[in-house]
Design a protein that fits this description.
Chains A, B: This is TetR family transcriptional regulator C-terminal domain-containing protein. The structure is a homodimer. Chain A is mainly alpha-helical. Chain A is built from nine helices and two strands, in the order H-H-H-H-H-H-H-E-H-H-E. The first copy, chain A, has a domain of about 130 residues: Tetracycline Repressor, domain 2. Strand 2 of chain A pairs parallel with strand 1 of chain B.
Chain lengths: ~230, ~230
Amino acid sequence: MDKRRKPNSTERRRDLCDAAIQLLADDGAKGVSHLKVDRKAGVPDGTTSFYFRTRSALLLAAAERLAELDLARLQSVADDSAGSGVGDSPSRLSQVVIQSGREPELTRTRARYELTMQAARDPQLAAALAHSTDAFTKLHREILVQLLPRGAELEPAVVEDLSNVTLTFINGLLLRFAHGDRIIDSAAQLDGILAAIARGMLRSPEKGRLTGVDPARPAGRNKVKKRG
Amino acid sequence: MDKRRKPNSTERRRDLCDAAIQLLADDGAKGVSHLKVDRKAGVPDGTTSFYFRTRSALLLAAAERLAELDLARLQSVADDSAGSGVGDSPSRLSQVVIQSGREPELTRTRARYELTMQAARDPQLAAALAHSTDAFTKLHREILVQLLPRGAELEPAVVEDLSNVTLTFINGLLLRFAHGDRIIDSAAQLDGILAAIARGMLRSPEKGRLTGVDPARPAGRNKVKKRG
């Protein structure tokens, strides 16, 4: 009963990529070598080199595997939202983000940042990651609209600005999660913050692009109350 | 006249650190080795090894140099603000952030992210970076208060939440800058966004902690207008 079927080529590649993702998360990009992936995956020395000739090919395959996992997760969220899930509280967007700060997703969040840093110098890697980034951006925009005050008719340019700002906030949040800094702990809290940002940006006095607003008041004199 | 004074030990260390920072920005952490720093700084092979025995010591020295440069920049901003600069428009906070997306600061922004990723696995490195991060957080909070609607009496807890949210947004922004993604291009735009976030969070109906608010409305039905 203990005799295990030998994994086929596709399964073997996937296992090696999962081992590489774990190494990226634990030890960073410098922690990934063919031999370390062999050891992590528990396969004979030389296996990873056989499947992925170069380090570059190995990192690319890891990025593609990560994108595949991300897309599967986002797709399941999108499918749920298409059914009775629209308008869920907390939103599925916030649930996805908060999950990204907890295991098992946190490993992928960490690996994604390592690969993103590498991708700044590797266009192929950047392209592999872009697919899931685009899917997340799309989900983000769809769900964001549901968090806005009801009945508002929204200019596309305003939604684009708001989407850019909240997405940048989420980028920062995921980066803090990757470093173990859990400044927000629940999807409901995150919904609250996203809705507050939306309120503030929609209330902007100007009609034009929100990011073009210049509301800095000269010589504001606010005081923070003393505690106690 | 062309005869150059031989740099002393302190200057030599500083030059090597600056070369390491440039390598971190250009090629990432894996691009930093003792020999590469020698070549980058134009010094004889072995010089960097003489000053910094281990790779870890070299990265730590680079992080300390980066923190020194950051603190000098933030200090000059704080000094200006203490004079006639308070309430400047655009704010000095936003000026600092926008500068971080342009050379020569962009090199440091990139290097800082590389070191931050390394610091997740190196407490000494994390401590070296924490000093300038704390200084930036302090500046951020001071200037943020000036961007808020005038005359408001602000609960410390509210300012803390707001500061956390806007700082997370700025983290995300700097990360996008580091990857060459300039979604915001002027300090005035950034002031506008920070002020909008502040407005939204201050308008929150609850009296309690803003990040604890749960305003997600079930089944919001907003539509984005069609373009055209």
